[in-house]
Amino acid sequence: MKVASLMLVSFCCVCLMLVGCSTTSSASSPENTAMSQTVADKDAKMAWWREAKFGMFIHWGIYAVPAGEWKGKDVRGPGEWIQTRGRIPGDQYDQLAKQFNPVDFNADQWASIAQAAGVKYIVITSKHHDGFCMFDTHATNFNVVAATPWHQDPLAQLDAACLLHGIRFCTYYSIMDWHTPDQSPHRPSSTAPEFSPTNMVPGKNDAYVAYMKAQLGELITGYHPSLIWFDGGWVHGWTAADAQTIYDYIQSCDPSIIVNNRLLYGVGDYGTPEQHIPNGGEQGDWETCMTINETWGYMSRDKDFKSAGTLITNLIKCVSGGGNYLLNIGPDGLGRIPEPEVQRLLAIGAWLKVNGDAIYGTTGSPFKSALPFGYATQKPGKIFLEITDWPTDGILRVPLSNVVIRAYLLTNPNSSLQVSPLLSTDGGGTQLVLPANAPDPVASVVVLEISGDPQPL
Ligand code: JFZ
């Protein structure tokens, strides 16, 4: 991993010399880009991400300071939306930067928690809709190094810590920007503006795209993200040409960078269902992003945390549907990951430590429909059954016609389970005899070794 990342760095530098990740380079046409990425190119680019299955989203910015409250009142909506939902004028919102002093931030601790949770990549906000930049950028002073008393670059520190902990560093970037002069608020007002959805100021698309390129160039060369997660593309006047220009620019800097689909207009590498897990998955590559409580950015009053069991089941459901799970955390204004979030992450990690073989590097369920007892994933020659409803009669009926070479519990690989084919009068398939008690209270994994491709009934 370290070697790979270092190679990536040197590769990026070489590429910079050759292609010049330059803000002035003109974009190639959309047709060129679409054709220049072959299926094989895309498979190679997506390989690590398809194996990773589990990522950690981090929403962190100066909105963590008000934490969902403005002038003593609760502001509805997620914490990172407080500026528009609270109708906070820019000159007042900007003052939050002066209060952002996260003295408890510890990049190594965050990366250790991510590693213990079993995530393979993190995606952290470099700039959210408020326009505040959480990295050292020369394109605006509205950034964490220049505008806060803290004067540190958390993304640089996390990038380095992720490398040490074997985790891919990736970054989120919002197209909508409530701070740039190139976009105007939905309802401008000096006392109670409503920002979202913004409008591109007529004639300013090129200027804003140049600003984005400048910042993305800084991020790519300085922090070498494996993936860029765009968002907030619902700006009136954001065009397909703008989206394609940004995608092409990123590819020109480093063609190994994965881009999600929220540049909009069908540009990008994978789908991003939000806050739900599509039943049976989606076509192509996809990743469900989800909050661990109700908010993305820290909100002190939001104590509505999903249980560890729900989160583990969600991860299994995503992977069984062929997708990834990107689980969000919202660190507070002092740089602390809230304790209930840490507990849940560690619980998922403990489950993955035992059962990770059924998750990482697998593909989705081979079965034609949902299984009554839980979920399934597969690797060549193996089917993993993640059993969330342990059968009370001790018999697991699997709609599979393959000869099962051997079946065992992942917790006990040396002891085989009794397997017998079911009579066609019983619906056919295979039945397994399970121990009376489930090894895991949330999901226990049975492994079926099979020959040939799965033959689901
Ligand atoms: C967006 C952001 O507005 C939000 O703050 C957070 O960053 C989240 C990950 O993404 O929220 C969205 C984006 C898209 C939809 C809904 C909320 N959508 O497509 O329904």
Description:
There is one protein chain. The chain has helices at residues 2-19, 30-36, 39-52, 82-85, 90-93, 96-99, 107-117, 144-147, 154-164, 205-223, 240-253, 308-320, 339-355; strands spanning 54-58, 69-70, 73-74, 121-127, 168-174, 183-184, 199-200, 227-231, 258-259, 287-291, 324-329, 374-379, 382-387, 395-398, 404-409, 412-416, 418-421, 430-433, 444-450. The protein folds into two domains: 5-358, TIM Barrel; 374-450, Golgi alpha-mannosidase II (Immunoglobulin-like, Sandwich). The longest helix has 19 residues, at 205-223. The strands form five sheets. It has a seven-stranded parallel sheet. It is α/β, with parallel strands linked by helices and 457 residues long. A hairpin with a 2-residue loop joins β12 and β13. The structure holds 4-nitrophenyl 6-deoxy-alpha-L-galactopyranoside. 4-nitrophenyl 6-deoxy-alpha-L-galactopyranoside binds next to loops. 4-nitrophenyl 6-deoxy-alpha-L-galactopyranoside is lined by residues 78, 80-81, 231-232, 274, 289, 296.
Can you tell me the CATH superfamily of the largest domain? Answer: Glycosidases
Low-confidence stretches: 1-19, 23-35
Shape: elongated
Counted beta strands:
19
CATH architecture call of the largest domain: Alpha-Beta Barrel
Spatial strand order of the main sheet: 9-8-5-4-1-11-10
Major sheet, described briefly? 7 strands, parallel
- Measured by DSSP, the beta-strand proportion falls in 15-25%
Return the domain count: 2
CATH class of the largest domain: Alpha Beta
